[in-house]
Amino acid sequence: MILQENQAFTHQFKVDDRVYNGFISVFEDRNALHTDEVFAKNKGFQSKVMHGNILNGFLSYFIGELLPTEEVMILSQTINFKNPVYLDDVLNFEAVVTDQSEAVQVNTLSFKFINADLKTVASGKIQIKEFQ
């Protein structure tokens, strides 16, 4: 297997206008929490809350573009949203290979996204299969 148990990865993502507007353009999710500043503030947030599924897009990019092999596919993933993400947040992404099954070429990685305030905004696990 190309990946090794306990192997760690880091990357930085920014939720900028391009990412935010691109998500809305493609998926047409215009829920007020994500698009209306006043509405979001009235619900106790400091600003519009970014769509949680933007982070799933970052996970896809990580698996498809940042791993040392392109010969992988996602089998499953879970993500737990813990704190809101706002426009222009810079997120530090950390992932670690926590389990491997050589018999079926499957890796499990634990991951988290951390904002500039050092708060974990999301965490979870992603299971991928290596092809050789």
From TrEMBL:
Q: Name one GO biological process term.
A: fatty acid biosynthetic process
Q: Name one GO molecular function term.
A: (3R)-hydroxyacyl-[acyl-carrier-protein] dehydratase activity
Q: Which domain of life is it from?
A: Bacteria
MaoC-like domain: from which residue to which, for each copy? 17-103
Q: What is this protein called?
A: MaoC like domain-containing protein
Organism this protein belongs to:
Chryseobacterium vrystaatense
Highest lineage ranks of the organism?
Bacteria, Pseudomonadati, Bacteroidota, Flavobacteriia, Flavobacteriales
